[in-house]
Amino acid sequence: MANIMQPRHLLEHLLKTATYYPVVLVDGPRQSGKTTLCRGAFPDKKYVSLEAIDNREFAQTDPRGFLSEYGDGAIIDEVQHVPDLLSYIQDNVDENPKAGRFILSGSQNLAISGMIFQSLAGRAGILHLLPLSRDEVAGFGAAPSQLYELLWTGGYPRIYDRGIPAQQWLADYVATYIQRDVRQLVNITDLSQFTNFFKLCAAHTSQELNLSKLGAAAGVSYNTINAWLSVLEASFLCFRLPAWHRNVKKQVVKAPKLHFFDSGIVCYLLGIKDPSQLRFHPLRGAIFESWVVAERYKAAVHRGLAPNFFHYRETRGAEVDLVQIDGDHIILTEMKSGETIDKQFFNNLHKLEQSLSLNTEDSTSNSVRVEKQLIYGGRTASVRQGVNVIPWVEV
């Protein structure tokens, strides 16, 4: 019987969702801890993995017979291998709609692919389990205590649970992903070209996305780059942070920013060999920014919330790394990886707040509460010029 080695923030929402729907899907990147979480949350349920060839063939060739083995429900792992099984699960739960019968897990974003919406609309709760957040990492005895060690190591559980050297584990993870998962998701004849594209994406983390330039650098067409980027997104390796321009009466840049969910993956792809090298790397600020945005993203989705996150940049004017919209509450956040605070760090936050207050059409000054934050590489919290200064250890 599997146990949860370390508590995950998604556990509470998983247990609650299983009281609402007959089917719950937990998806996320490979090795993010989905199997451990599901088996620990439902220790009395039968478990079957469709990663195993014999189980997969049984589910493919005789789906009704396969499901008859699990009349009281089950945890079905790696369900993306047999997508047609979802239609038979639909019939099964229509006959017996008891909440929490089937707990499914998958290493692809089945919601994006449309499989869940086509087969289990209204019958399934969809949850995402991403790599460990900073405070989840802190639950391990050998957790990094320094910022650059944490960024370099990343947040995949097996690195901490098994004590595997980060660079060795990440190298195996990337190689396996490209050799196996990429082949399943898209027809690529030259995997070395995709590997080069993957590294280029890492070099563009926290940057505005220009698919034409990225395609030119990778030596492939715009359509190919768009398809390849969708593969990375479907695998929960990176995501696009859209630009925010709602009712702000200035020309703004509308390109999304590219962010990775795991800083360790980025460091590996960039060839950063150890934390001391990261400390002086020219992309350390970009890696830190992506890490903070990913931490905020995890905090939302692990509570079952849809992140309403954006970035903001005027053509000539203010830039703000992260804009979080929560009803009438807007959080503006800047990120700086250094340990020293400069008063200029606050300028863009003040400029955007002023733009919001002048936007009478949005009635922001009357109805919306704006909170300004600076997250930095130091360890001391404070309030300066009306900005909450947050150390990285409190993200």
Explain how this protein is built.
- The longest helix has 20 residues, at 166-185.
- Mean pLDDT is 91; it is low at 360-365.
- Strands 8-9-10-11-13-12 form a 6-stranded mixed beta sheet, with helices on both faces.
- It starts with 9 loop residues before the first helix and ends with a strand.
- The protein is of the alpha/beta class.
- The protein has 2 domains: 10-128, P-loop containing nucleotide triphosphate hydrolases (Rossmann fold, 3-Layer(aba) Sandwich), CATH 3.40.50.300; 134-394, no CATH class.
- Helices cover 43% and strands 17% of the residues.
SSE topology sketch:
Elements: H1 10-17, E1 23-27, H2 34-41, E2 46-49, H3 53-61, H4 63-68, E3 74-77, H5 85-95, E4 102-106, H6 110-113, H7 115-120, E5 124-128, H8 134-137, H9 147-153, H10 157-161, H11 166-185, H12 191-203, H13 211-218, H14 222-234, E6 238-241, E7 257-260, H15 263-269, H16 275-279, H17 284-301, E8 309-313, E9 319-326, E10 329-336, H18 347-358, H19 364-367, E11 369-376, E12 382-384, E13 387-391
Parallel strand pairs: 1-4, 1-5, 2-3, 3-4, 10-11, 11-13
Antiparallel strand pairs: 6-7, 8-9, 9-10, 12-13
Helix pairs in contact: 9-15, 12-13, 12-15, 13-14
